[in-house]
Inverse folding.
């Protein structure tokens, strides 16, 4: 069972993707530390909230990239048809889902 998980992990995120994702997380960590300093310095709430919004946007972008990698791995192994067609179907389904939420 552990070998199956290792195989799935090996194909799920390549080294370049892991590096890009961890770099995104590192930037967010630094940004959050900056927000903490702003709170400790009792900066204006509107300044802090702008930074919080930036972190939320960065986290959403991180999630989107991670989801993209997951979908590419899943679509490649789980769905019939040409890869571009499979990705298009999944993208349309996600777009419809997100419009409704």
């Amino acid at each position: 069972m552990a070998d199956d998980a290792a195989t799935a992990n090996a194909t799920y995120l390549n080294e370049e993707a892991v590096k890009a994702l961890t770099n995104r997380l590192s930037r967010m960590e630094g940004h959050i530390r900056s927000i903490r300093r702003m709170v400790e310095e009792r900066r204006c709430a509107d300044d802090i909230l702008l930074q919080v919004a930036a972190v939320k946007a960065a986290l959403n972008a991180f999630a989107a990239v991670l989801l993209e990698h997951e979908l590419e791995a899943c679509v490649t192994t789980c769905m019939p048809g040409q890869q571009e067609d499979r990705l298009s179907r999944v993208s349309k389904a996600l777009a419809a889902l997100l419009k409704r939420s």
